[in-house]
């Protein structure tokens, strides 16, 4: 059992859990504890230290979009993103509810709304309290400085006036032909000016202090405002929810339209001539409307988790496309040195091209194939697929996926070619003695032998693709993580800076998971150390 | 007639170009006739071209001049009628022992039913003593067991000729002896014409019907052919105790020593 667990951990690439398992089974506790210290505790400590340094340094740098967010602010932003997503899901469910479940949800939402309205009041009075406390605090802190400023101003004024008086006296007393006396006057005037500037400077310093106190950070107020914001958001959500459970609910709308239809039908029964024509047309329109509404669903906005899913889908489309191109070409390159020679210039030329260059080209080319995305058979058919369809695939998505493919196919291609070309000579001899045909030689000898290197290439490709994807989405405005970052950059609200930091962690985490998954695949196909049974 | 001259090598030449573009004949004028069911060993100093001769019969190495006829047909290229056991086991590491053997069986008997093919593969693995290790991967097997799979793969092809290219060269001496007996047992059942490359005189005397001694290269050819008159099936202990065994062995070693001194003299004369 123990060895099975250890082997499974090894395959999954979670070797750092190894000492814990061994410790549970009581194997050399000292050794295991020191390993736990090295591979688990130290990384955690390092991460905590990183958070500490970040939290200390970040507020020191003020930007146009506010201070650089601290870890706490980023965590709140992440929570906000998640809450928004959950609420949108609830709304979209509410829209479709009907009958008893709708009624129970409605009363639930209304109850919550009542209590949250109270909570909002409490929160806003807390904000007001904090505000007045802050004002009092500011006033008391400012008072000594204000006094000092007033005194300094009075003192400076008298000093300045007396200097001015003595200057006028000096000007009076200058004799007619004495240039040295004139010089002396100018010197005195210079002294006066520089002294006045100095006095102004000192006054400004104190004013600056007063201003600084006025703009002071008051944590209770910040907390109170944040609490109020959360409550206000929830209140708005609940109000919307009540709407979607009552008058904006799908079943309610259908019922309303049907009632209207009933009226029209009654009118139709007793009408003739012009009126009959009018009512007939109305009935048809109403029937159409009912049909449309009863098929409709809540127009859910692009929340970040949905954008993540779409990004993942995009990277997989691109990755699969890249693999479908790179692996066959790589195999041909490895098998035939002539083909390799023909491909070398293309590989060397296109490999270094940046995604930023490919994307506009891909957008234009895809746009050429799909001039009207709303009425194109390909877009229609992929959007009518069950799960994929709900992500609204469009030409921008396809162009992003193609860009991902164009940038990420090179590592797979080169590695596949290398793997196929460096196949063991003995294995080739076996194939020759057995007189294997081309296809069985390819599938039984060449590909299995090249598989570890092919997967090493695929792993690099997926990593490259994930990095390229964010840039591609950002440029093509294809809904996804890149688009989210771009929107946050452009809207410049106080939250958006922190939300961009959230993206950093999300992108890193997903990239790490993708990489680890590929490592597991790579280990499973590499015959040298592949586990035969877990 | 055909049985006596089952395999014939006429004046076989193998030449490789040297860096100056001149062709250097590694093997020059190699003549040998093997009768059906015979076990012949080729012995010689390393580098004399023994393996070259074998790979030429296997068809893995094109012949520069001359010809090789196996069972009345001149060979062209490799084929499963001449099964090779290489010095390294050369198993495909992504297949189990069974799958490795099956690969050849499928190729040679494409029309046989699946159960027949499986039976053939299982039989040849059990003959080499691997009935219990059929589903293991090569990396899970010891060197000796891997080489057994290599032998099983070769005999499963039901070849006209078995070519052994220093098959025990990489094994320790105990395993080597075991595998020698494995091969002799198989050949007692099924008289396959066999050629073995070796540089171990004991092995050659113990296993062979005839031993072909090769002169040193370049331009190696058959120096001397010695018949070994031991009855089959052979028993190691009995044979190794006889005075004939020592005579045969002495002659072999004498020949190899002569080759070496001749080479030395040639080198001295050249310098």
* Average pLDDT number of chain B: 88
Top-tier CATH class of the largest domain in chain A: Mainly Alpha
Residue runs with pLDDT of under 50 for 5 or more positions of chain A: 530-534
Beta-strand residue percentage of chain B: 15-25%
Q: What oligomeric assembly is this protein in? A: heterodimer
Overall 3D geometry of chain B? globular
User: Span between N and C termini of chain A?
Assistant: 10 Å
Structural class of chain B: alpha/beta
* Low-confidence regions of chain B: none
Placed side by side, the strands forming the largest sheet of chain A appear as: 1-2
Strand coverage percent of chain A: under 5%
| Helix-strand pattern of chain A | HHHEEHHHHHHHHHHHHHHH
The main pleated sheet of chain A reads as: 2 strands, antiparallel
Overall pLDDT metric of chain A = 88
Q: What Rg of chain B, in angstroms, do the CA atoms define?
A: 19 Å
Whole-number total of structural domains of chain A: 4
| Most extensive chain-chain interface | A-B, 19 and 25 residues
Distance between the termini of chain B: 49 Å
Could you please describe the fold and organization of this structure?
The complex is a heterodimer of chains A (534) and B (271). Chain A has 534 residues and is an all-alpha fold. Chain A has four domains: 2-60, no CATH class; 103-227, no CATH class; 249-295; 304-525, MetI-like fold, CATH 1.10.3720. Helices cover 82% and strands 1% of the residues of chain A. Chain A has helices at residues 2-12, 18-24, 29-57, 71-96, 99-173, 179-214, 219-245, 250-269, 273-295, 304-335, 337-350, 355-369, 377-383, 395-421, 425-433, 438-476, 481-491, 496-525, and strands at 62-63, 66-67. Chain A has a two-stranded antiparallel sheet. In chain A, helix 10 packs antiparallel against helix 16 (438-476) and helix 10 crosses helix 17. Chain B has a domain at 91-158. Chain B has helices spanning 50-58, 97-108, 114-127, 143-156, 173-189, 201-207, 236-241, 243-270; strands at 7-17, 23-34, 39-43, 65-70, 73-74, 82-85, 161-165, 193-198, 210-214, 222-227. In chain B, strand 4 and strand 5 (73-74) form a beta hairpin. In chain B, 39% of the residues lie in helices and 23% in strands. With 271 residues, chain B is an alpha/beta fold. Chain B is built from eight helices and ten strands. Chain B is globular, with a radius of gyration of 19 Å. The longest helix of chain B is centred in the last third of the chain and has 28 residues, at 243-270. Classes of the chains: A mainly alpha (534), B alpha/beta (271). Chain A binds chain B through residues 426-427, 429-430, 432-436, 440, 444-445, 448-449, 451, 527-529, 532, and chain B through 58-60, 77-80, 82-84, 86, 88, 90, 92-95, 103-104, 107-108, 137, 139-140, 157.
């Amino acid at each position: 059992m123990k060895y099975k667990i250890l082997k499974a951990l090894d395959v999954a690439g979670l070797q750092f859990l190894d000492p814990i398992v061994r410790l549970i089974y009581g194997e050399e506790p000292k050794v295991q504890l020191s390993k736990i210290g090295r591979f688990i505790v130290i990384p955690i400590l390092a991460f905590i230290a990183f958070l500490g340094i970040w939290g200390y340094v970040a507020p020191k740098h003020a930007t146009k979009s506010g201070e650089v967010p601290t870890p706490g602010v980023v965590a709140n932003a992440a929570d906000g993103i998640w809450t928004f997503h959950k609420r949108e899901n609830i709304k979209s469910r509410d829209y479709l509810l009907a009958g008893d479940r709708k009624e129970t949800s409605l009363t639930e939402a209304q109850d919550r709304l009542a209590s949250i309205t109270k909570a909002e009041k409490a929160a806003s009075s807390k904000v007001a309290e904090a505000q007045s406390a802050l004002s009092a605090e500011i006033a008391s802190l400012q008072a000594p400085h204000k006094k000092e400023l007033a005194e300094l101003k009075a003192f400076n004024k008298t000093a300045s006036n007396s200097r001015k008086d003595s200057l006028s006296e000096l000007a009076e007393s200058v004799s007619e032909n004495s240039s040295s006396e004139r010089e002396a006057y100018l010197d005195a005037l210079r002294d006066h000016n520089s002294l006045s500037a100095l006095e102004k400077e000192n006054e400004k310093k104190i004013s600056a202090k007063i201003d600084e106190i006025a703009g002071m950070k008051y944590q209770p107020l910040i907390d109170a405002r944040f609490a109020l914001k959360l409550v206000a958001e929830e209140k708005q959500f609940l109000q919307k929810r009540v709407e979607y459970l009552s008058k904006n609910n799908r079943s309610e709308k259908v019922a309303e339209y049907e009632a209207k239809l009933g009226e029209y039908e009654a009118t139709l029964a007793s009408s003739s001539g012009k009126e009959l024509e009018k009512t007939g047309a109305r009935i048809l329109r109403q029937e159409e409307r009912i049909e449309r509404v009863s098929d409709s669903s809540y127009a859910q906005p692009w929340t970040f988790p949905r954008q993540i899913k779409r990004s993942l889908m995009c990277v997989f489309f691109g990755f699969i496309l890249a693999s479908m191109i790179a692996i066959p070409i790589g195999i041909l390159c490895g098998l035939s040195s002539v083909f390799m020679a023909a491909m070398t210039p293309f590989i060397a030329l296109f490999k270094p091209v940046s995604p930023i260059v490919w994307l506009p080209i891909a957008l234009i080319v895809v746009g050429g194939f799909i001039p009207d995305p709303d009425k194109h058979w390909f877009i229609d058919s992929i959007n009518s697929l069950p799960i994929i369809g709900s992500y609204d695939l469009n030409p921008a998505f396809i162009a992003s996926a193609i860009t991902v493919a164009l940038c990420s196919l090179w590592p797979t291609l080169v590695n596949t070619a290398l793997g196929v070309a460096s196949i063991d000579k003995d294995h080739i001899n076996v194939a020759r003695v057995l007189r294997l045909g081309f296809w069985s030689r390819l599938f039984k000898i060449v590909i299995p032998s090249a598989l570890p290197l092919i997967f090493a290439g695929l792993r690099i490709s997926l990593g490259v693709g994930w990095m390229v994807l964010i840039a591609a989405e950002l440029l093509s405005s294809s809904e996804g993580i890149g688009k989210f970052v771009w929107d946050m950059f452009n809207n410049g609200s106080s939250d958006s800076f922190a939300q961009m930091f959230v993206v950093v962690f999300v992108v890193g985490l997903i990239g790490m998971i993708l990489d680890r998954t590929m490592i597991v695949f790579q280990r499973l196909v590499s015959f040298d150390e592949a586990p035969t049974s877990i | 007639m055909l049985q006596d001259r089952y395999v014939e090598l006429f004046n076989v030449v193998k030449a490789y170009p040297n860096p100056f573009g001149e062709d250097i004949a590694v093997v020059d004028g190699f003549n040998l006739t093997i009768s059906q069911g015979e076990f012949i060993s080729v012995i010689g100093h390393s580098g004399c071209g023994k393996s070259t001769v074998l790979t030429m019969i296997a068809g893995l190495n094109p012949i520069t001049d001359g010809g090789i006829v196996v069972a009345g047909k001149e060979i062209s290229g490799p084929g499963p009628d001449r099964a090779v056991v290489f010095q390294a086991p050369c198993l495909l590491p992504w297949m189990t022992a069974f799958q490795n053997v099956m690969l050849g069986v499928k190729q040679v008997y494409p029309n046989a039913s699946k159960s027949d093919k499986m039976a053939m593969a299982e039989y040849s693995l059990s003959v080499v003593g691997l009935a219990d290790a059929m589903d293991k991967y090569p990396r899970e097997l010891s060197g000796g067991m891997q080489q057994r799979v290599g032998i099983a793969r070769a005999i499963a092809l039901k070849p006209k000729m078995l070519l052994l290219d220093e098959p025990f060269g990489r094994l320790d001496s105990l395993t080597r002896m075991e595998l020698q007996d494995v091969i002799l047992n198989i050949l007692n059942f099924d008289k396959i014409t066999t050629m073995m490359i070796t540089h171990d005189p004991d092995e050659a005397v113990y296993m062979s019907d005839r031993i072909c001694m090769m002169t040193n290269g370049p331009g190696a050819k058959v120096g001397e052919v010695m018949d070994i008159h031991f009855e089959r099936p052979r028993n190691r202990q009995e044979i190794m105790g006889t005075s004939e065994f020592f005579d045969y062995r002495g002659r072999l070693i004498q020949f190899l020593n002569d080759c070496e001194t001749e080479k030395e003299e040639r080198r001295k004369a050249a310098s």
